[in-house]
Write a structure and sequence with these properties.
CATH superfamily of the largest domain: Copper type II, ascorbate-dependent monooxygenase, N-terminal domain
Bound molecules: heme C
Order of helices and strands: HHHHHHEEEEEEEEEEEEEEEEEEEEEEE
CATH architecture of the largest domain: Sandwich
Strand content: 25-35%
CATH class of the largest domain: Mainly Beta
Structural class: alpha+beta
Shape: globular
Radius of gyration: 23 Å
Distance between the termini: 45 Å
Number of helices: 6
Helix content: 10-25%
Length: 405
């Protein structure tokens, strides 16, 4: 991380590395910065989150002042998210800074980080809670897994889980508890419609856990959820839920990525909020191109795919999850009908901040309309052509989406 910072600041940092601490601004911690830090930074930077430092503390934030100014000025913090001007989604205010907030953070960080007058402090500041606190059902891996990473550091491991439901149940909220955050690169939870998970990976279809790198998922899996780094909980609107029957086979695919020389053990858990009846059943779809080639040196390679609504009825898209790997730099999704284009997602991509964007208003996908998805990758520093694959060193371009009708 320090290396990353040094590399960045060396290239085009507008701030001298040892900027002076003389106060040159009237923006203060108590009046202006502390509320922004609580609302928009502390969920990750509170001493226990995924970002370094505890920036609810004046001392720590002040010591990082010039770095805060630099990262915010570059548009790199908070981590990139879809542009709310395209479409608003749960948490969008928290994930994006206003122009005024950017100006304040930069002025404060570069201007000597004044503390100001305690009388200006906003009372009762709190850090946003970004886990589900009202789940009622845990679905853990049935046993801890000791990783067997290949030479590239990847492993795909599947377990058939114990279905925790005793009657028809609707999932209304989904969250995860990771066993080892350092190595979990994705989790996919699915229903195997033929109750023979593993068969397409070469098992007899009755094995409780197995290696599962190829195919990406089995052809008879109905996706329930996918987790990737940065993912926040998914919550459906009142009256909507994902249906699971007690006799269905639930399978979990873990993608691990780590140092092949190290030993890791993981036991991760899904957590659900559930109900016994809903007005609308939610399902999950996915599509994306697989035949792309990303040339070395190409800083803006793109691939696009579309999914035509042939469901036989109009559908509503409730949320969507754009997925690429480490070279991903931008994503865009829109609905194309005869004469219009409706923006669904548009944003810079960061592997560490992959989101299922749950829309404040659902997107109509009428019969015959197309849902389009475009990925952009930056391979400017690469020396080899990168193509489709599941490994973290290969690339993907998938849009997963929740819908109802
Ligand atoms: C969703 C999580 C998240 C949020 C929200 C977030 N950050 Fe970060 N931040 C990170 C992570 C993770 C890193 C580690 C570097 C990386 O991976 O890019 C980081 C690194 C940084 C760094 C560089 C590290 C250092 O100590 O110099 C700065 C500065 C920073 N963030 C500032 C901010 C500010 C200011 C905000 C709020 C306006 C913010 N971040 C909001 C996750 C977050």
């Amino acid at each position: 991380m320090l290396f990353l910072l040094a590399a960045c600041t060396g290239a085009d940092d507008p701030t001298p590395p040892d900027s002076s601490s003389a106060t040159t601004t009237d923006v203060t911690w108590y009046r202006d910065i502390e509320p922004i830090s609580y609302a928009k930074c502390a969920a990750c930077h509170d001493g226990t989150g995924v970002g370094p430092g505890d920036w609810t503390s004046y001392e720590e934030a002040s010591a990082a002042g010039d770095r805060i100014a630099w990262w915010v000025d570059q548009g790199e913090m908070p981590l990139p998210a879809s542009d709310p001007e395209c479409r608003t989604y749960a948490g969008h205010e928290r994930m994006n800074l206003t122009d005024e907030e950017i100006a304040a953070l930069v002025a404060w960080g570069d201007g000597g980080t004044p503390l100001g007058d305690e009388a200006d402090q906003t009372p009762d500041l709190s850090i946003p809670v970004v886990t589900l606190t009202d789940t009622d059902t845990d679905l853990p891996m049935f046993e801890a897994h000791t990783l067997q990473l290949n030479d590239q550091g990847n492993e795909y491991w599947c377990q058939v889980l114990d279905n925790p439901f005793e009657e028809t149940t609707y999932i209304t909220g989904i969250d995860v508890d990771l066993g080892d955050r350092e190595v979990v690169h994705h989790m996919v939870l699915a229903i195997d419609q033929n109750k023979n998970a593993g068969i397409e990976y070469g098992t007899d279809g009755a094995t409780a856990q197995f290696e599962c790198s190829n195919p990406v998922v089995e052809s008879d899996w109905l996706l329930i959820h996918a987790w990737t780094p940065g993912m926040e909980p998914v919550e459906f609107a009142e009256g909507q839920g994902y249906k699971v029957e007690p006799d269905q086979q639930i399978v979990l695919q873990m993608h691990y990525f780590g140092d092949p020389a190290e030993t890791y053990t993981d036991l991760s858990t899904y957590r659900f909020r559930t109900t016994d009846s809903v007005d609308q059943v939610v399902e999950m779809g996915a599509f994306g191109p697989t035949d792309f080639q990303i040339a070395p040196g190409d800083g803006a390679a793109t691939a696009t795919d579309g999914l035509k609504n042939t469901f036989g009825t109009d559908i509503e898209i409730l949320g969507a999850f754009p997925h690429m790997h480490l070279l991903g730099s931008h994503f865009r999704s829109w609905v194309a009908s005869d004469d219009t284009e409706i923006c669904v997602l548009d944003g810079r991509y960061d592997f560490d901040h992959q989101m299922t964007y749950m829309f404040e208003e659902p997107v109509d996908l009428k019969e015959g309309d197309r849902l389009k998805f475009e990925c952009t990758w930056d391979n400017s520093a690469g020396t080899e052509t990168v193509s489709f694959g599941e490994g973290t060193d290969e690339e993907m371009c998938f849009l997963l989406f929740y819908y109802t009708y």
